[in-house]
Amino acid sequence: MNIVIIEDEDLAAESLEKLLLKSSRNVVVIKRLESVSEALEWFKDNSCDLIFSDIHLGDGESFEIFETLDIKIPIVFTTAFDKYAIQSFQFFAIDYLLKPYDEDKLNSAIEKYFSINVSAPVEFNKIESFLQQLKSNEKNTNIQERFLVSRGEQLISINSNEIAYFMAQDKYLFLFTNTGDSFLYEDTISNIEFKLSSKDFFKINRKFIVSHHAIKQIFKYSQNRLKLELQPVPNFSELILVSSKSTKDFKNWLNN
């Protein structure tokens, strides 16, 4: 079994590799990647059987890797925080391990890989749908209602009902208000999705999260995609499309 480790801390990576090599399975660590950018480049032309990935990396969160490339390789997420558990299973996650590593739990994760029929992603789609439903139905006490931004020396606190949409551009995230103002906001689009009310906001693709009241018109763009016209009108010219894999959930969201 060929394994890739995504980890930016040397000691953590070395500890994980030592435990993996002690496994009764024939495990080979073929690559260690240390950043989001390095992983994005490597996985364009390479693959493996299983990924062990930390969530917090020096240049962002590993969720960005799997979201950008839509990787369908099973993943075991490793982190010092338990708050990302639900978020991690929107990807091809088979387990979620907390640091420091426990040898028994690590071996259990490896055995889980062998016990799962990885050629049947429909099962993972069911898990994702269930977690999305759980996320929508639960009373989430972690919903963020105010967002602190700055303009020069001035600090501004913006209420969530004043936000029209978020846009990710390269490594930056921009917040657009109902009045047409835009601000740089210090977070990632993968992370902030789970701080917003799923009733009021929807992530239409890997770059945009939009609110209900910002959608002016919706058009059929292709067989599986939709085009949105937002208000206020964005100060950029690119098309705003609902990704094909999100179209069905987006329509359900509009119906609710």
- The helix content is 25-40%
Enumerate the strands of the largest sheet in spatial order, edge to edge or round the barrel.
2-1-3-6-7
Main beta-sheet strand count, sense and barrel state = 5 strands, parallel
Radius of gyration: 20 Å
Which ranges are low-confidence, i.e. pLDDT below 50, for 5 or more consecutive residues?
118-122
Order of helices and strands: EHEHEEEHEHEHHEEEEEHEEEEEH
The rounded distance between the terminal residues' Cα atoms is 44 Å
Mean pLDDT: 84
- Number of E strands: 17
Strand-residue proportion: 25-35%
Summarize the structure.
The chain has 256 residues and is an alpha/beta fold. It is built from eight helices and 17 strands. It has helices spanning 10-21, 36-43, 63-69, 85-88, 103-115, 122-137, 189-192, 247-255, and strands spanning 2-6, 28-33, 50-54, 56-57, 60-61, 75-79, 93-98, 146-151, 154-159, 163-169, 172-177, 182-185, 201-203, 208-211, 215-220, 226-230, 241-242.
